[in-house]
């Protein structure tokens, strides 16, 4: 494994091996495995779990890390190819990213979607260009249309809870005051399909996941023996569900149009996960969410504070799986 950019880059068997390594490192820590190694963390967007968990993981393996929040204590970085740089950004990623790579043994990059051009965001041109500028291992800490670290942590969480491989996994759109990126829903749908689950994407009209995202997940499902489909029928989707994975994303029918998106979601206040959502699920159905979550907008207090909620386990597993990713990328094999 040379980079960690997308679960789809790995055979299913390698993902399972990575999860086994993650569990082994919990049971038998290796506090000196990455002694002398340095992890660079480049953030173009805010973070809480990703930032803290990567620094903690590197420290637990005996390594060090540095954090660059672009434009905050550093120069603003320009990402556009061909930009005439007569505005606020003082440095281009074509210079800045290779410089950072000189100073570390692996580089994590977080760069959200632009949110204006769906085709451009799905293509991830800017993120891929930055990856191409680095001659060290690169970790995707969330790009325009992917979040493999969250997906791997969620897979670990499902395994920890002994959720059957063929169980019904409902990825449900939930409300939010504004449009959010497609990275987590895309990665989540693909992860659950790759695990071999019966994946149902539940969303209102106008919020369907783009065809390339669904096609990628469908290919993973075909290989694993799982399935994936979309619906707006909440009762049907939740019937027999083992997991409700709540997640917010913008209207794909009005992508880049904040005003139209706001109108579309204005009548969707009932898309907040409440106890009533579990009337048709299996008895021990779990609630998952990547966090941060808007209480009583996306998920009600009554659910987040109940035994159904496993959001804290998901957050903890970010540390667990990222420790394994760093170990796999940077440790020297012992002979």
Compact summary:
With 335 residues, the chain is an alpha/beta fold. The protein has twelve helices and eleven strands.
Question: Can you walk me through this structure?
Answer:
- The chain is of the alpha/beta class and 335 residues long.
- The chain folds into two domains: 7-146 and 315-330, Rossmann fold (3-Layer(aba) Sandwich), CATH 3.40.50.1370; 162-309, Aspartate/ornithine carbamoyltransferase (Rossmann fold).
- Helix content is 39%, strand content 14%.
- The protein contains twelve helices and eleven strands.
- It has helices at 12-27, 49-60, 93-102, 118-123, 125-132, 148-160, 183-195, 211-224, 234-238, 258-265, 301-304, 311-330, and strands at residues 38-43, 64-69, 77-78, 91-92, 106-110, 138-140, 168-173, 198-202, 227-231, 243-247, 286-288.
- The strands form three sheets. Strands 9-8-7-10-11 form a five-stranded parallel sheet. A four-stranded parallel sheet has the order 2-1-5-6, covered by helices on one side.
- Helix 8 links the parallel strand 8 (198-202) and strand 9 (227-231).
- Helix 1 (12-27) packs across helix 12 (311-330), helix 6 (148-160) packs across helix 7 (183-195) and helix 6 (148-160) crosses helix 12 (311-330).
- It is globular, with a radius of gyration of 20 Å.
């Amino acid at each position: 494994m040379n980079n960690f950019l997308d679960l789809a880059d790995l055979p299913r068997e390698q993902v399972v091996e990575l999860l086994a390594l993650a569990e082994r490192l919990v049971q038998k820590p290796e506090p000196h495995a990455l002694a002398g190694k340095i992890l660079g963390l480049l953030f173009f967007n805010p973070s809480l779990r990703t930032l803290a968990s990567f620094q903690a993981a590197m420290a637990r393996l005996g390594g060090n890390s540095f954090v660059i929040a672009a434009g905050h204590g550093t120069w603003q970085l320009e990402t556009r190819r061909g930009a005439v740089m007569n505005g606020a950004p003082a440095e281009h990623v074509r210079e800045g990213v290779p410089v950072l790579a000189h100073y570390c043994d692996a580089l994590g990059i977080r760069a959200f979607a632009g949110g204006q051009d769906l085709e451009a965001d799905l293509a991830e041109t800017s993120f891929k260009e930055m990856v191409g500028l680095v001659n060290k291992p690169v970790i995707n800490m969330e790009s325009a249309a992917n979040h493999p670290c969250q997906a791997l942590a969620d897979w670990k969480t499902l395994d920890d809870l002994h959720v059957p491989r063929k169980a019904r996994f409902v990825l449900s759109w939930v409300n939010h005051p504004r449009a959010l990126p497609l990275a987590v829903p895309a990665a989540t749908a693909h992860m659950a399909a790759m695990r071999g689950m019966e994946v149902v994407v539940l969303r209102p009209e106008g919020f369907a996941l783009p065809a390339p995202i669904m096609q990628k997940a469908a290919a993973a499902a075909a290989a694993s023996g799982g399935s994936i489909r979309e619906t707006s029928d909440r009762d049907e989707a939740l019937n027999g569900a083992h997991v409700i994975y709540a997640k917010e994303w913008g209207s794909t029918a009005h992508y880049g149009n904040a005003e139209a998106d706001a109108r579309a979601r204005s009548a969707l206040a009932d898309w907040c996960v409440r106890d009533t959502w579990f009337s048709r699920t299996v008895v021990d159905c779990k609630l998952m969410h990547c966090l941060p979550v808007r209480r009583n907008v996306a998920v009600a207090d009554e659910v987040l504070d109940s035994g159904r909620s496993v959001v804290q386990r998901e957050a903890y597993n970010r540390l667990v799986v990222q420790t394994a990713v760093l170990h796999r990328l940077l440790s020297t094999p012992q002979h």
